[in-house]
Write a structure and sequence with these properties.
The chain has 674 residues and is an alpha+beta fold. It contains 29 helices and 16 strands.
Length: 674
């Protein structure tokens, strides 16, 4: 009915009420017309007037509930429906509308019961079957939802919405051709149904029919230019087809429609990154994370970008790239208490220090095919045992707190580097436990066998476990701070307790000479007191990397000196990773690499525990054999390990029992100990 006719109807019921103020049905009819005119508050007053005259009029309560729902007064609407059903339990429309409001309130099971009650009274209600199907779908009961849509279509074969939603269910059940047929049927009934064109595009994309999918999305957008999801998915298909610029235009359009579409920002970032526009990509990831702090894909993409050579190579000399906004590690370390009182200058320097920390982590990232981990035969035996709490899985390698390291200056050498005039007498206190495992590029090293894995104090009795590249994450793949997440076993995602970590080279600083040593593989390079390269005979690539390390260290020292004394403690905590990647030069022969993991002491869900029999904290890393991956390549025994043959027998047996398929090489070092 058009607006003029509705106004005529309203005048008619106003006259009826004027003639008979006790005519409660006239009040209800007037309420219905006011509702149709969009005058919900006045409609509510009219229904209330009817109920004052006749408190037992169930239809007035039902219609009152409909208006209250429109006014977002959902609990009151539910009470109104309940009152109507007290008066007349046999009104199917009231049960139907009650189902609607319960669904809106998230009470899905109760909503289902209301629709079932409506259908018990009126088995021919196609809309009740349709809505029941929607709720069953929300509850994950896909096949029952499909049955409900089919029932709605038996009653009303031209129900386009039921065909469309039926298609969505069929797609989710893997019946893609049937889903396509269902969308086509919806469009045969209603060619202007934008959602059916959109969903048809989705299933065509899944079927690999990309060009047809594009045509469907285009049709949806022709009908509804504000259909952001169609723009976004169209961008994804265009990207798959290699039509990058068109894909970028689609993501931009989707973001015009919905500036808070974090998935579109993430995909735009990925596309910009592939086009070489790294800083623009970073800005997209930051914005996506700021919109949705739970967008793990954007976080992972941001970390991978920042850990890539292309990102750093693409930065200009004086680039002020933003690596702190949207960075969960920065936000954990830079609490309000620490940085709240910082001046603008101090804060700017801390931001730039954070960038330099990232730059050095990129420069010190190791990507070796194999590295050694020196340990005792007892630890190796433990690694090959099944965990008591998880049947069938080996024990993980433990990361242990650096407080238990054999270097008494651990964590303080970096401070000496920053402030040359003094070596701090105490460690910086932190709310984070720093855990690590050490590795070495010197795989069969007499020096390492002297230091590590001694049995009853005897040198040369340890083992070197040689791990392959897949034991570690790629640079930047994981955050610095191991914030424990819920285990989502249904998606197959790893929890942070079992995540892979990037591997970094350790730098060695000589406090007396001011020289700094970088020892990749079996080489050793040095920087002088001013962090300039000392060696002449270097390959250009090695010289360039060493120069970049020196330049970054200079920047760090300069920025730290610019920070006020008051803010220096906060700045040191922000550089927590670097504090544990700079050691005393006395240890340079170890050629050490490390993985580091930071854990808040106060995180109740953290996997942190006290290592049994030792006064230090630990956390599990990865087992030697883990979910089909085999990380162990070789086991080298120290030259004085006496029961080597027995160790090999037992280890091979246990590796096989743990599911190992590949051959692990066992050998004994011939390096003489004297």
């Amino acid at each position: 009915m058009d607006k003029e006719k509705l106004k005529g109807e309203l005048e008619k019921w106003e006259r009826e009420i004027a003639l008979d103020p006790e005519n409660f049905t006239a009040y209800v009819k007037r309420g219905n017309v006011l509702d149709d005119l969009g005058r919900s508050e006045e409609a509510l007053d009219s229904y209330n007037s009817a109920l004052e005259i006749n408190p037992a009029y169930d239809k007035a309560y039902c219609n009152r509930g409909i208006v209250l729902k429109k006014l977002e007064r959902k609990e009151e609407a539910l009470s109104s429906y309940d009152k109507a059903l007290e008066i007349n339990p046999g009104n199917d429309a009231t049960h139907y509308n009650r189902g609607h409001i319960l669904d809106d309130l998230g009470r899905k099971e109760e909503a289902l019961q209301s629709y079932d009650k409506a259908l018990e009274i009126n088995p021919g209600d196609h809309a009740a079957y349709y809505n029941k199907g929607n709720i069953l779908n929300d509850l994950g009961r896909k096949k029952e939802a499909l049955d409900s849509y089919n029932k709605a279509l038996e009653i009303r074969p031209d129900y386009d919405k039921a065909y469309c939603n039926r298609g969505i269910i069929l797609k989710s059940l893997g019946q893609k051709e049937e889903a396509l047929a269902s969308y086509n049927k919806a469009l045969e009934i209603n060619p202007g149904y934008d959602a059916a064109h959109y969903n048809k595009g989705n299933v065509l994309d899944d079927l690999g029919r990309k060009e047809e999918a594009l045509a469907s999305y285009s049709k949806a957008l022709e009908i509804n230019p504000g259909y952001g999801a169609a723009c976004y998915n169209m961008g994804n298909v265009l990207d798959d087809l290699g039509r990058k610029e068109e894909a970028l235009a689609c993501y931009n359009k989707a973001l015009e429609i919905n500036p808070h579409h974090d998935a579109a920002l993430n995909n735009k970032g990925l596309l910009l990154s592939n086009l070489g526009k790294k800083e623009e990509a970073l800005a997209c990831y930051i914005q996506a994370i700021q919109i949705n702090a739970g967008n793990e894909i954007a976080k992972r993409n941001r970390r991978s970008l920042v850990g890539s050579k292309e990102f750093w190579d693409g930065l200009s000399e004086n680039s002020q790239v933003d690596l702190w906004s949207g960075d969960e590690d920065f936000n954990v370390l830079a609490s309000r208490e620490k940085l709240g009182g910082c001046s603008g200058k101090d804060l700017s320097c801390i931001h730039r220090l954070w960038v330099e920390q990232y730059r050095l982590l990129y420069l010190l990232s190791a990507d070796l095919e194999q590295v050694g981990h020196y340990t005792s035969s007892m630890v190796f035996e433990t690694l090959l045992q099944k965990q008591t709490e998880t049947d069938g899985h080996a024990n993980p390698l433990s990361l242990c707190s650096l407080a238990a390291a054999n270097d008494p200056t651990e964590g303080t050498v970096f401070q000496a580097f920053l402030k040359q005039d003094c070596l701090p007498s105490q460690r910086i206190q932190s709310h984070l436990a720093v855990l690590q495992a050490s590795f070495s590029s010197a795989i069969d090293s007499l020096n390492q066998f002297r230091l590590y894995g001694k049995n009853k104090g005897e040198e040369g009795t340890g083992l070197c476990l040689v791990f392959n590249r897949s034991f570690f994450a790629k640079p930047g793949e994981t955050s610095m701070i191991a914030v424990q997440k819920e285990d989502d076993s249904s998606s197959g995602k790893e929890t942070d307790m079992r995540r892979k970590l990037p591997l970094y080279w350790v730098l060695y600083y000589d406090c007396s000479s001011g020289r700094l040593h970088y020892t990749p593989a079996c080489s050793e390079y040095s920087l002088n007191r001013d962090f300039n390269v000392c060696e002449d005979a270097l390959k250009e690539s090695e010289r360039k990397k060493l120069q970049e390390i020196g330049k970054s260290l200079k920047n760090i020292r300069m920025l730290f000196e610019c920070i006020s004394e008051k803010a220096q403690k906060a700045a040191l905590e922000m550089l927590i990773y670097l504090r544990h990647l700079v050691k005393d030069a006395a240890f340079k022969d170890e050629k050490e690499l490390r993985i580091l993991s930071l854990h808040p002491y106060n995180d109740q869900s953290s996997p942190l525990k006290v290592l049994e029999g030792k006064n230090c904290l630990s956390v599990g890393y990865l087992p030697v054999i883990h979910e089909g991956e085999e990380y162990l390549e070789k086991v080298i025994a120290g030259p004085k390990l006496r029961d080597f043959a027995n160790l090999v027998d037992v280890a091979k047996f246990r590796l096989h029992r743990l599911g190992g398929k590949k051959k692990v090489e066992f050998c004994q070092s011939r390096a003489p100990l004297s």
